[in-house]
Design a protein that fits this description.
Layout (H helix, E strand, L loop, with lengths): L2 H10 L6 H13 L16 H16 L2 E14 L18 E16 L9 E10 L2 E11 L7 E9 L20 H6 L4 E12 L6 E10 L15 E12 L4 E15 L5 E4 L7 E4 L8 E17 L2 E16 L15 E17 L4 E11 L22 E11 L4 E12 L15 E9 L1
Parallel strand pairs: 10-14
Antiparallel strand pairs: 1-2, 1-18, 2-3, 3-4, 4-5, 5-6, 6-7, 7-8, 8-9, 9-12, 10-11, 12-13, 13-14, 14-15, 15-16, 16-17, 17-18
Helix pairs in contact: 1-2
Protein backbone atom coordinates (compact mmCIF):
# COMPACT_ATOMS: atom_id res chain seq x y z
CA UNK A 1 0.00 0.00 0.00
CA UNK A 2 1.28 3.47 -0.85
CA UNK A 3 2.72 5.35 2.16
CA UNK A 4 0.70 8.58 1.75
CA UNK A 5 -2.54 6.54 1.79
CA UNK A 6 -1.58 4.91 5.10
CA UNK A 7 -0.72 8.27 6.59
CA UNK A 8 -3.96 9.78 5.27
CA UNK A 9 -5.83 7.03 7.08
CA UNK A 10 -3.99 8.00 10.23
CA UNK A 11 -5.13 11.58 9.67
CA UNK A 12 -8.73 10.47 9.78
CA UNK A 13 -8.31 9.43 13.42
CA UNK A 14 -6.67 12.70 14.49
CA UNK A 15 -9.15 15.01 16.31
CA UNK A 16 -10.00 18.16 14.40
CA UNK A 17 -8.61 20.39 17.16
CA UNK A 18 -5.08 19.03 16.82
CA UNK A 19 -4.08 21.12 13.83
CA UNK A 20 -0.32 20.79 14.42
CA UNK A 21 -0.54 17.00 14.40
CA UNK A 22 -2.51 17.00 11.15
CA UNK A 23 0.03 19.31 9.49
CA UNK A 24 2.96 17.14 10.61
CA UNK A 25 1.41 13.94 9.22
CA UNK A 26 0.46 15.69 6.00
CA UNK A 27 4.07 16.86 5.52
CA UNK A 28 5.32 13.30 6.06
CA UNK A 29 2.83 12.04 3.47
CA UNK A 30 4.14 14.43 0.82
CA UNK A 31 7.78 13.71 1.72
CA UNK A 32 7.25 9.98 1.23
CA UNK A 33 4.91 10.28 -1.72
CA UNK A 34 7.06 8.25 -4.11
CA UNK A 35 8.24 5.61 -1.63
CA UNK A 36 6.83 2.12 -2.27
CA UNK A 37 6.15 -0.41 0.49
CA UNK A 38 8.52 -3.36 0.21
CA UNK A 39 10.70 -5.57 2.36
CA UNK A 40 13.79 -3.90 3.79
CA UNK A 41 16.78 -5.21 1.88
CA UNK A 42 19.43 -2.89 3.24
CA UNK A 43 19.79 -1.21 6.63
CA UNK A 44 19.63 2.21 4.96
CA UNK A 45 16.25 1.46 3.39
CA UNK A 46 13.07 2.68 5.06
CA UNK A 47 10.18 0.29 5.61
CA UNK A 48 7.29 2.72 5.25
CA UNK A 49 4.88 0.82 7.47
CA UNK A 50 7.45 0.61 10.26
CA UNK A 51 8.27 4.29 9.76
CA UNK A 52 4.69 5.37 10.37
CA UNK A 53 4.21 2.98 13.29
CA UNK A 54 7.57 3.43 15.07
CA UNK A 55 8.57 6.98 14.15
CA UNK A 56 5.71 9.27 13.13
CA UNK A 57 3.19 8.35 15.81
CA UNK A 58 5.67 8.36 18.76
CA UNK A 59 7.14 11.62 17.45
CA UNK A 60 3.75 13.31 17.40
CA UNK A 61 3.05 12.18 20.96
CA UNK A 62 6.44 13.44 22.15
CA UNK A 63 6.13 16.81 20.43
CA UNK A 64 3.04 17.51 22.51
CA UNK A 65 5.29 17.65 25.60
CA UNK A 66 8.19 19.65 24.12
CA UNK A 67 8.45 23.42 24.55
CA UNK A 68 10.79 25.67 22.55
CA UNK A 69 11.85 29.15 23.62
CA UNK A 70 14.74 31.50 23.01
CA UNK A 71 15.95 35.04 22.48
CA UNK A 72 18.53 37.07 20.55
CA UNK A 73 20.38 40.21 21.66
CA UNK A 74 22.34 41.93 18.86
CA UNK A 75 23.98 45.17 20.00
CA UNK A 76 26.36 48.03 19.25
CA UNK A 77 28.71 49.48 21.88
CA UNK A 78 31.00 52.48 22.22
CA UNK A 79 33.61 52.76 24.99
CA UNK A 80 35.39 55.85 26.34
CA UNK A 81 38.78 54.61 25.10
CA UNK A 82 40.31 51.97 22.87
CA UNK A 83 41.08 48.72 24.64
CA UNK A 84 38.85 49.59 27.59
CA UNK A 85 38.41 46.90 30.19
CA UNK A 86 34.73 46.20 30.64
CA UNK A 87 32.15 44.04 32.35
CA UNK A 88 29.62 45.06 29.68
CA UNK A 89 30.15 42.02 27.49
CA UNK A 90 33.93 41.70 27.92
CA UNK A 91 37.01 43.85 27.29
CA UNK A 92 37.38 45.83 24.07
CA UNK A 93 40.14 44.92 21.60
CA UNK A 94 43.38 46.92 22.04
CA UNK A 95 42.76 49.11 18.95
CA UNK A 96 38.98 49.41 19.13
CA UNK A 97 36.55 51.54 21.12
CA UNK A 98 33.37 50.37 19.34
CA UNK A 99 31.93 47.07 18.19
CA UNK A 100 28.93 45.17 16.91
CA UNK A 101 28.32 41.87 18.67
CA UNK A 102 25.80 39.15 19.35
CA UNK A 103 25.70 39.35 23.10
CA UNK A 104 23.39 36.37 23.43
CA UNK A 105 21.51 34.11 20.99
CA UNK A 106 19.90 31.24 22.84
CA UNK A 107 17.58 28.36 22.12
CA UNK A 108 15.99 26.45 24.97
CA UNK A 109 14.19 23.12 24.79
CA UNK A 110 12.09 21.74 27.65
CA UNK A 111 10.66 18.25 27.63
CA UNK A 112 7.96 17.42 30.18
CA UNK A 113 7.31 13.82 31.17
CA UNK A 114 3.56 13.69 31.91
CA UNK A 115 2.09 12.45 35.16
CA UNK A 116 -1.42 11.86 36.49
CA UNK A 117 -1.37 15.29 38.17
CA UNK A 118 -2.68 17.90 35.73
CA UNK A 119 -0.48 20.84 36.81
CA UNK A 120 2.87 19.13 37.35
CA UNK A 121 4.89 16.68 35.27
CA UNK A 122 6.67 13.63 36.63
CA UNK A 123 10.01 14.99 35.40
CA UNK A 124 11.44 17.59 33.04
CA UNK A 125 14.58 17.91 30.94
CA UNK A 126 15.98 21.33 30.00
CA UNK A 127 18.64 22.01 27.38
CA UNK A 128 19.77 25.54 26.46
CA UNK A 129 22.63 26.62 24.19
CA UNK A 130 24.11 30.03 23.44
CA UNK A 131 25.44 30.49 19.88
CA UNK A 132 27.33 33.72 19.08
CA UNK A 133 30.38 34.83 17.09
CA UNK A 134 32.47 33.72 20.08
CA UNK A 135 31.33 30.10 19.78
CA UNK A 136 28.63 27.75 21.03
CA UNK A 137 28.32 26.89 24.70
CA UNK A 138 25.80 24.93 26.76
CA UNK A 139 24.08 27.13 29.32
CA UNK A 140 21.54 24.80 30.94
CA UNK A 141 21.50 21.01 30.88
CA UNK A 142 19.57 19.50 33.76
CA UNK A 143 16.97 16.98 34.85
CA UNK A 144 14.29 17.91 37.37
CA UNK A 145 12.18 15.35 39.24
CA UNK A 146 8.76 16.01 40.75
CA UNK A 147 8.14 13.33 43.42
CA UNK A 148 4.71 11.72 43.40
CA UNK A 149 4.23 12.52 47.10
CA UNK A 150 3.38 16.12 46.34
CA UNK A 151 4.24 19.14 44.23
CA UNK A 152 6.06 21.09 46.96
CA UNK A 153 9.40 19.25 46.61
CA UNK A 154 11.60 18.99 43.51
CA UNK A 155 15.06 17.56 42.87
CA UNK A 156 17.39 18.97 40.21
CA UNK A 157 20.71 17.66 38.90
CA UNK A 158 22.96 18.85 36.08
CA UNK A 159 24.18 22.26 34.92
CA UNK A 160 21.91 25.05 36.20
CA UNK A 161 21.87 28.37 38.07
CA UNK A 162 23.22 28.43 41.61
CA UNK A 163 20.64 29.46 44.23
CA UNK A 164 22.24 32.70 45.38
CA UNK A 165 20.98 36.25 45.03
CA UNK A 166 18.20 37.86 43.04
CA UNK A 167 20.11 39.35 40.10
CA UNK A 168 22.16 36.20 39.51
CA UNK A 169 18.96 34.20 39.00
CA UNK A 170 17.10 36.82 36.94
CA UNK A 171 17.17 35.69 33.30
CA UNK A 172 19.04 37.89 30.82
CA UNK A 173 15.89 37.79 28.66
CA UNK A 174 13.98 39.69 31.38
CA UNK A 175 16.70 41.69 33.16
CA UNK A 176 16.36 45.40 32.42
CA UNK A 177 20.11 46.22 32.36
CA UNK A 178 22.31 44.76 29.60
CA UNK A 179 24.56 42.92 32.07
CA UNK A 180 24.67 41.76 35.64
CA UNK A 181 26.68 43.80 38.13
CA UNK A 182 30.45 43.54 38.49
CA UNK A 183 30.09 41.59 41.76
CA UNK A 184 27.78 39.03 40.15
CA UNK A 185 30.23 38.46 37.29
CA UNK A 186 33.31 38.25 39.53
CA UNK A 187 31.91 36.05 42.28
CA UNK A 188 29.42 34.02 40.21
CA UNK A 189 30.89 33.91 36.67
CA UNK A 190 28.50 32.21 34.27
CA UNK A 191 25.83 32.07 37.03
CA UNK A 192 25.57 28.30 36.61
CA UNK A 193 27.42 25.30 37.97
CA UNK A 194 27.32 21.50 37.93
CA UNK A 195 25.61 20.06 40.94
CA UNK A 196 22.43 18.84 42.59
CA UNK A 197 19.70 20.81 44.36
CA UNK A 198 16.56 20.11 46.35
CA UNK A 199 13.78 22.68 46.52
CA UNK A 200 10.94 23.06 49.02
CA UNK A 201 7.92 25.28 48.44
CA UNK A 202 5.66 26.21 51.34
CA UNK A 203 2.07 27.16 50.67
CA UNK A 204 0.28 30.30 51.74
CA UNK A 205 -3.44 30.90 52.12
CA UNK A 206 -3.85 30.39 48.41
CA UNK A 207 -2.64 26.80 48.08
CA UNK A 208 -2.01 27.26 44.36
CA UNK A 209 0.87 29.66 45.01
CA UNK A 210 3.96 29.18 47.14
CA UNK A 211 4.47 31.76 49.90
CA UNK A 212 8.12 30.80 50.38
CA UNK A 213 10.71 28.67 48.64
CA UNK A 214 13.95 27.14 49.89
CA UNK A 215 16.62 25.95 47.44
CA UNK A 216 19.72 24.22 48.73
CA UNK A 217 22.36 22.47 46.64
CA UNK A 218 25.92 21.22 46.36
CA UNK A 219 28.10 22.26 43.40
CA UNK A 220 31.55 21.64 41.95
CA UNK A 221 32.42 25.29 42.46
CA UNK A 222 34.23 26.28 39.26
CA UNK A 223 31.12 27.14 37.24
CA UNK A 224 30.62 26.52 33.51
CA UNK A 225 34.13 27.73 32.63
CA UNK A 226 35.67 24.56 34.08
CA UNK A 227 35.63 21.33 32.09
CA UNK A 228 35.84 19.15 35.20
CA UNK A 229 35.93 19.47 38.96
CA UNK A 230 39.55 20.23 39.85
CA UNK A 231 39.37 19.19 43.53
CA UNK A 232 37.23 17.23 45.97
CA UNK A 233 35.76 20.28 47.69
CA UNK A 234 32.16 21.28 47.00
CA UNK A 235 30.28 24.53 47.43
CA UNK A 236 26.97 24.49 49.30
CA UNK A 237 24.61 27.29 48.25
CA UNK A 238 21.14 28.08 49.56
CA UNK A 239 18.47 30.70 49.05
CA UNK A 240 15.24 31.34 50.96
CA UNK A 241 12.89 33.49 48.89
CA UNK A 242 9.63 35.00 50.09
CA UNK A 243 7.18 35.44 47.24
CA UNK A 244 5.46 38.84 46.69
CA UNK A 245 3.26 39.91 49.58
CA UNK A 246 0.61 42.44 48.61
CA UNK A 247 0.45 45.24 51.18
CA UNK A 248 -2.41 46.74 49.17
CA UNK A 249 -3.91 46.33 45.71
CA UNK A 250 -1.13 48.50 44.28
CA UNK A 251 1.87 47.69 46.50
CA UNK A 252 3.79 44.42 46.89
CA UNK A 253 7.07 43.41 48.48
CA UNK A 254 9.26 40.32 48.15
CA UNK A 255 12.57 39.37 49.75
CA UNK A 256 15.27 36.73 49.94
CA UNK A 257 18.23 35.49 51.98
CA UNK A 258 21.21 33.70 50.44
CA UNK A 259 24.33 31.93 51.65
CA UNK A 260 27.28 30.07 50.13
CA UNK A 261 29.85 27.97 51.98
CA UNK A 262 32.70 26.37 50.10
CA UNK A 263 36.16 26.92 48.68
CA UNK A 264 38.90 25.31 46.60
CA UNK A 265 42.25 23.63 47.08
CA UNK A 266 45.20 25.84 47.91
CA UNK A 267 47.95 25.30 45.36
CA UNK A 268 50.91 26.39 47.49
CA UNK A 269 52.04 26.81 51.10
CA UNK A 270 51.77 30.60 50.86
CA UNK A 271 48.54 32.14 52.17
CA UNK A 272 48.26 35.94 52.39
CA UNK A 273 45.87 37.62 54.83
CA UNK A 274 45.21 41.27 55.61
CA UNK A 275 46.62 42.68 58.83
CA UNK A 276 44.57 45.03 61.01
CA UNK A 277 45.27 48.68 61.79
CA UNK A 278 45.82 51.90 59.88
CA UNK A 279 48.72 50.42 57.90
CA UNK A 280 46.80 47.43 56.62
CA UNK A 281 48.85 45.14 54.38
CA UNK A 282 49.10 41.53 53.35
CA UNK A 283 51.03 39.23 55.64
CA UNK A 284 52.10 35.74 54.62
CA UNK A 285 51.56 32.40 56.34
CA UNK A 286 53.93 29.80 54.87
CA UNK A 287 53.09 26.75 56.97
CA UNK A 288 53.65 23.48 55.11
CA UNK A 289 50.18 22.35 56.17
CA UNK A 290 48.62 25.06 53.96
CA UNK A 291 49.25 23.04 50.80
CA UNK A 292 46.05 21.23 49.83
CA UNK A 293 43.87 22.92 52.45
CA UNK A 294 40.60 24.54 51.47
CA UNK A 295 40.78 28.24 50.65
CA UNK A 296 37.57 29.44 52.35
CA UNK A 297 34.81 30.88 50.18
CA UNK A 298 32.01 32.40 52.30
CA UNK A 299 29.12 34.54 51.03
CA UNK A 300 25.99 35.95 52.67
CA UNK A 301 23.36 38.03 50.92
CA UNK A 302 19.98 39.69 51.41
CA UNK A 303 17.63 41.20 48.82
CA UNK A 304 14.28 42.96 48.64
CA UNK A 305 11.98 43.97 45.77
CA UNK A 306 9.33 46.68 46.16
CA UNK A 307 6.69 47.30 43.46
CA UNK A 308 4.00 49.97 43.26
CA UNK A 309 1.50 49.81 40.41
CA UNK A 310 -0.55 52.77 39.22
CA UNK A 311 -2.81 52.39 36.21
CA UNK A 312 -0.83 50.84 33.35
CA UNK A 313 2.56 51.75 34.81
CA UNK A 314 4.66 50.85 37.81
CA UNK A 315 7.56 51.90 40.00
CA UNK A 316 9.95 49.18 41.14
CA UNK A 317 12.84 49.38 43.58
CA UNK A 318 15.25 46.48 44.15
CA UNK A 319 18.07 46.29 46.63
CA UNK A 320 20.67 43.59 47.23
CA UNK A 321 23.67 43.41 49.57
CA UNK A 322 26.44 40.78 49.71
CA UNK A 323 29.41 40.34 51.98
CA UNK A 324 31.88 37.61 52.86
CA UNK A 325 35.33 36.21 52.10
CA UNK A 326 36.74 35.49 48.65
CA UNK A 327 40.01 33.68 47.96
CA UNK A 328 42.00 34.73 44.92
CA UNK A 329 45.43 35.59 43.62
CA UNK A 330 47.44 38.79 43.90
CA UNK A 331 45.99 39.97 40.55
CA UNK A 332 42.33 38.89 40.60
CA UNK A 333 39.38 37.91 42.78
CA UNK A 334 37.41 36.21 39.99
CA UNK A 335 36.25 32.72 40.96
CA UNK A 336 38.52 30.37 38.96
CA UNK A 337 37.57 27.82 36.34
CA UNK A 338 40.84 25.90 36.72
CA UNK A 339 42.90 24.97 39.75
CA UNK A 340 44.99 27.92 41.06
CA UNK A 341 48.59 26.86 41.65
CA UNK A 342 50.14 30.03 43.06
CA UNK A 343 49.85 31.75 46.45
CA UNK A 344 46.35 32.30 47.87
CA UNK A 345 45.13 35.77 48.87
CA UNK A 346 42.18 35.94 51.25
CA UNK A 347 40.06 39.09 51.11
CA UNK A 348 36.91 40.29 52.85
CA UNK A 349 34.50 41.87 50.36
CA UNK A 350 31.14 43.57 50.16
CA UNK A 351 28.85 44.54 47.28
CA UNK A 352 25.57 46.32 46.67
CA UNK A 353 23.16 46.22 43.72
CA UNK A 354 20.23 48.65 43.37
CA UNK A 355 17.65 49.13 40.60
CA UNK A 356 15.05 51.88 40.21
CA UNK A 357 12.57 51.22 37.37
CA UNK A 358 9.90 53.68 36.32
CA UNK A 359 7.24 53.31 33.62
CA UNK A 360 6.71 56.38 31.45
CA UNK A 361 3.26 57.06 30.04
CA UNK A 362 2.09 53.47 30.32
CA UNK A 363 3.85 50.20 29.65
CA UNK A 364 5.67 51.09 26.38
CA UNK A 365 8.55 53.09 27.87
CA UNK A 366 10.62 52.35 30.95
CA UNK A 367 13.47 54.31 32.53
CA UNK A 368 16.16 52.61 34.59
CA UNK A 369 18.65 53.92 37.12
CA UNK A 370 21.08 51.30 38.43
CA UNK A 371 23.79 51.64 41.06
CA UNK A 372 26.18 48.93 42.13
CA UNK A 373 29.52 48.64 43.84
CA UNK A 374 32.07 45.90 44.43
CA UNK A 375 34.76 46.33 47.08
CA UNK A 376 37.02 43.26 46.90
CA UNK A 377 39.01 44.25 49.99
CA UNK A 378 37.10 46.11 52.69
CA UNK A 379 40.18 46.30 54.95
CA UNK A 380 41.85 48.97 52.82
CA UNK A 381 40.85 51.91 50.61
CA UNK A 382 42.10 55.04 48.89
CA UNK A 383 45.72 56.01 49.45
CA UNK A 384 46.14 53.03 51.79
CA UNK A 385 46.21 50.95 48.61
CA UNK A 386 49.93 50.87 47.96
CA UNK A 387 52.30 48.42 46.35
CA UNK A 388 54.44 48.25 49.49
CA UNK A 389 51.62 46.42 51.26
CA UNK A 390 51.41 43.73 48.60
CA UNK A 391 48.25 45.33 47.22
CA UNK A 392 47.28 45.49 43.53
CA UNK A 393 44.43 46.58 41.26
CA UNK A 394 42.56 43.47 42.47
CA UNK A 395 41.98 45.31 45.78
CA UNK A 396 40.34 48.42 44.26
CA UNK A 397 36.71 49.32 44.83
CA UNK A 398 34.54 49.97 41.76
CA UNK A 399 31.19 51.77 41.59
CA UNK A 400 28.95 51.81 38.52
CA UNK A 401 25.98 54.01 37.68
CA UNK A 402 23.81 52.86 34.79
CA UNK A 403 21.17 54.97 33.04
CA UNK A 404 18.85 53.28 30.60
CA UNK A 405 15.73 53.78 28.52
CA UNK A 406 13.75 50.86 27.06
CA UNK A 407 11.04 50.90 24.41
CA UNK A 408 8.73 47.88 24.49
CA UNK A 409 6.98 47.27 21.18
CA UNK A 410 5.41 44.03 22.43
CA UNK A 411 6.03 41.74 25.38
CA UNK A 412 8.61 39.97 23.20
CA UNK A 413 10.31 42.82 21.29
CA UNK A 414 12.23 45.76 22.77
CA UNK A 415 15.12 48.13 22.13
CA UNK A 416 17.39 49.53 24.85
CA UNK A 417 19.80 52.44 25.18
CA UNK A 418 22.03 52.17 28.25
CA UNK A 419 25.04 54.15 29.48
CA UNK A 420 27.39 52.79 32.14
CA UNK A 421 29.46 55.27 34.18
CA UNK A 422 32.26 53.25 35.82
CA UNK A 423 34.40 54.71 38.59
CA UNK A 424 37.34 53.15 40.39
CA UNK A 425 38.73 54.60 43.60
CA UNK A 426 41.92 56.64 43.54
CA UNK A 427 44.88 54.79 45.02
CA UNK A 428 48.60 55.10 45.67
CA UNK A 429 49.28 52.24 43.27
CA UNK A 430 51.43 53.05 40.22
CA UNK A 431 49.25 54.15 37.30
CA UNK A 432 46.04 53.87 39.34
CA UNK A 433 45.85 57.26 41.00
CA UNK A 434 43.01 58.44 38.71
CA UNK A 435 39.86 56.99 37.21
CA UNK A 436 40.25 54.83 34.10
CA UNK A 437 38.35 55.70 30.93
CA UNK A 438 35.99 52.71 30.74
CA UNK A 439 32.45 54.07 30.39
CA UNK A 440 30.33 52.17 27.85
CA UNK A 441 27.25 53.04 25.77
CA UNK A 442 25.12 50.05 24.69
CA UNK A 443 22.40 50.05 22.03
CA UNK A 444 20.59 46.73 21.98
CA UNK A 445 17.67 45.02 20.28
CA UNK A 446 16.00 41.96 21.77
CA UNK A 447 13.44 39.50 20.48
CA UNK A 448 12.31 36.49 22.48
CA UNK A 449 9.75 33.78 21.89
Amino acid sequence: MDVPIKIMRTLIHVPKGQAKTRLLLLAVAFALGGLPARAQRYLTDVDSSLFVRDTVRPLVRRLENIRFSGYIQPQYQVASAKGAGSFEGGNFAPFSNNRFMLRRARIKVDYLLPSLRPRFPRASFTFQVDATERGVIARDVFLRLYPATGNNVTFTMGLFARPFGYEVNLSSAYRESPERSRASQVLMPGERDLGAMISFEGKGRDSSRAAAKLDIGAFNGQGPSGTTDFDSYKDVAARLSLRPLFLSRQVSVAAGLSALYGGWRQGSIYVYKMSAGSNAAFGVDSSLSNLGKKAPRRYAGADVQFVRRAGRGKTELRGEYWRGMQPGTDQTTVSPGSLPTGPTYLRHFDAGIFYLLQSIGGDKWEALLKYDWYDPNTKVSGNSLRAAGGLTAADMRFTTIGIGLTRYFTASLKILAYYDVVRNESTALPGLSTDARDDVLTLRMQLRF
